[in-house]
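Recall that a protein's primary structure is simply its ordered list of amino acids. Everything else, from secondary elements to tertiary packing, is in principle encoded there. The following example makes that idea concrete.
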Amino acid sequence: MQHWLRTTMLSGAIALGTVLSVHAAQTDITIGMQLEPPNLDPTGGAAAAIDEVVYANVFEGLTRYQADGSIAPALAESWEISDDGMVYTFHLHAGVKFHDGSDMNADDVKFSLDRARAEDSTNAQKALFAGIASVDVVDPLTVKITLSGPNGSFVTNMAWGDAVIVAPESIANAATNPVGTGPFVFSEWVKGDSITITKNPNYWGNAVALDKATFKFISDPTAAFAAMMAGDLDAFPGYPSPETLPQFDADPRFTVVGGNTEGETILSTNNKDEHFSKLKVREALAHAINRQEIIDGAMFGYGKPIGTHFAPHHPDYVDLTGNSNYDPELAKKLLAEAGYPDGFKTTLKLPPPSYARRGGEIIAAQLRAVGIDAEISNLEWAQWLEQVFKGKDYGLTIVSHTEPMDIGIYARPEYYFQYDNPAFQKLMTDLNAESNPAKRSAMLKEAQTIISNDYVNGYLFQLARTSVINSKIKGMWENSPTQATDLTGVSWSD
């Protein structure tokens, strides 16, 4: 269906019997998504696709990311921080209601944060809440959060999708019927096809311009191209077929946007695997990879090479690509020194995104050239989460980590790549307690260097956010400071 301007014809007793045409801007939008979310509870699932639908649209936190990556107030209109950096007092907006009509107040904030940090919590970013010692309700619109130690990132942590505020009355069904406080209300989920959200008429903040938004799941690049060209989609953030971007660029109906993401795309390595537990094997792996060949072959030139788990557009980024330069002969030598002169066999389990599937074929060929036989398994997203992320049943995988400033995951030995370095863990603990910008910068640079020297993973490229958008649409994010398709400022031009 072509989405253009709707025309309403008004007729009646008008002078000389003429007919007037009144043009109204379109108020619905259809958006392409590569992956279907496994559920719609951002506080209980790791998939980025969850936040791409619900972040800022359905659910809100105390604070939030804005398009430029800065942090702004959300459900909290203001806050104070104690002199010792240990107590944060948040003042909530008055009159906020959940979509079911119940009031949102300090009790819900306490419930949400206590639930996220509980021992049995299934929150994918539980570490965000580990430093909270207590959450106390001062009054219905004031909540006091006491930390076990200073944390210069705490206000930013509260902006993550994993930290949105939920209600005890509705959280049990959030996976399939999310109830938030945002400007859009969950409407329908047609499994395997689409999710629809509609305008919240009782929203506490500024009203949105859109009445309805539908997220259509299209993982196949060819189908994505056809759907955009036919007008079945109005926008595709994170468009999966970069080789066809020149065609959209030449078509005045579309705008092509090339922005940044926070997505470090890595050849993730199981550090407890019988082979990859050895540093020399991981180093060999790193030198067997030709990053530019992967960027050109899988991403058609879109993407920036990385040598560590850090975004190149961040001011504290260190270019460590030279530490793992492409050197297949060195890779073979290191494998022999590690006890594998004839190489070995392993698994390469790939989730659905095109960067993983296309990149996996190229990487498998590169590894084969140095003696590593990586058997490819193409998994659906739910299978990948179960086998790789939760089950840690893999040798290698490819995935883009789209969470902002997430180098702290390397301080979690239980995380799926199972890297256990006490010195790195101490560095992250010290970083959390440090508020001096210069000292924090030095620590972040040291952290990047440690994981690069330990060859924890194969560092490939920073995922570009290439989006195709109907040229009449305004207000969509160009970059991805967090995993979101924020529709709060999106509208159609008249």
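The mean pLDDT is 92. The CA atoms of residues 30 and 231 lie 9 Å apart.
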